[in-house]
Amino acid sequence: MSLNPITKRNQSADLLKGMAVIFMVQVHIMELFAKQEIYDSVIGKISLFIGGPPCAPVFMAVMGYFLAYSDKPFSYYAKRGAILFIGGILLNIGRSAYLFFNIYSGQSIADPFFYIFGVDILPLAGLSLIACGLLKLFFKHNYIYYLIFAFIIAAVSPYLPVFGSAKSISGYVNAFLWGNFEWSYFPLFPWLAYILIGYAFRLFEKKYQFSSKFGSSHNLVFSIPLIVFAAITISYATNVAHNLNGDEGYYHHEFLFFCWVLLFMAGYIMVINLIEEHSGKQPIARFVKWIGKNVTVFYVFQWLIIGNIGTQIYKTQSRSEIIFWFIGIIAVVSVLTFVWSKIKKFYLI
Asked: Which residues lie across from 119 on neighbouring strands?
């Protein structure tokens, strides 16, 4: 089940990240492009589930796992976190550029600040880096402390007090921390918990040499009961994932859903490890892993495209049209990511 950064296991991490961002593309298209009746249908529920537990929780856990390898000082975490946070705000502006034009020209009455300060993955990653740097000062390399704190965060998040009104500075600050506002998608609480789980798992793995004892046969044996559990309880998780906002929605989910995701995630990672072991060299797997290696750039490009197109065709597309958009956007973003990687390599950006 390990994701150690040696060639073979690192491939599993790239596969996980690549799958996550592809799932994000399809769920963004479902949320912004698909007609409301499609969004509310069984297809919509499946789409939002695929864009739920296998995406952000897995992505953040993998991030936490690899953070545990770093021995950098807090200043490093603070600097990198600030860059990611500011980059997330700039991405919010970029992906909403066409909407801002409509607001400026009087074609829309939407509040631009809701979109500028939308609490998405990149701001979450930035704040989480800073938080991990701080926690490392106190917890050192004791995985138990990170694990306990992760469960505490998941348990108390729904009960933390909301401060500030929807359009106040304090309200925007609260939205990034835990406030349940309409533009708060991935606040620090409860989502930091997934990063800490990944962080704790790596420390545990290192201390007990877990990776050397957990092989392919273990992945197969232990994944089966977890898959059965997920299949039996899938309706519960699907309903949470489809209810994005609200006190019991996906973005601000409760402790029970957090526990469900952990079990799902364990089985899912084992399955991905098996896929990598037996089919990792297949063209599709290699393509997904390439996306995973370039996940940040791919993520940025897909949002710039989907966000701006979504303003123009918001909730107007049929089933066949959203399939077309999915294939087309994956293709275009892949080309843009490839070109960017070449430019970056040439100019040593």
From this structure: 184
Q: Map residue 235 onto helix, strand or coil.
A: helix
Q: Which sequence spans correspond to the domains of the chain? A: 7-347
Which DSSP string corresponds to 34-70?
B-HHHHTSHHHHHHHHHTSTTTHHHHHHHHHHHHTT-
Mark residue 164 as left, alpha or beta (left: phi above 0; alpha: psi -120 to 50; beta: remaining). left
Q: Give me the helix-helix angle, 255-279 and 234-242, nearest 10°.
A: 110
Residue 9's pLDDT band, with cuts at 50, 70 and 90, is very low
| Other CB atoms within 10 Å distance of the CB of residue 313 | 12
Q: Which two tokens stand for residue 295?
A: 């996940």
Do 211 and 2 touch, CB atoms closer than 8 A? Answer: yes
Furthest C-alpha separation in the chain: 63
Are 193 and 132 in contact, with CB atoms under 8 Å apart? no
Tell me the pLDDT band of 259, cut-offs 50, 70 and 90.
Answer: very high
- Triad 59, 62, 64: Cα angle to 5°: 110
CB 110 within 8 A of CB 133: no
Long-range contacts of residues 218-222, Cβ cutoff 8 Å, at least 24 apart: 218/1, 219/1, 219/270, 219/271, 219/273, 219/274, 220/270, 220/274, 222/1, 222/266, 222/267, 222/270
**Amino acid, single-letter form, for residue 64:** G
Cβ atoms of residues 34 and 315 within 8 Å: yes
pTM of the full predicted structure? Answer: 0.93
Tell me phi and psi for residue 146, to 5 degrees: -65, -40
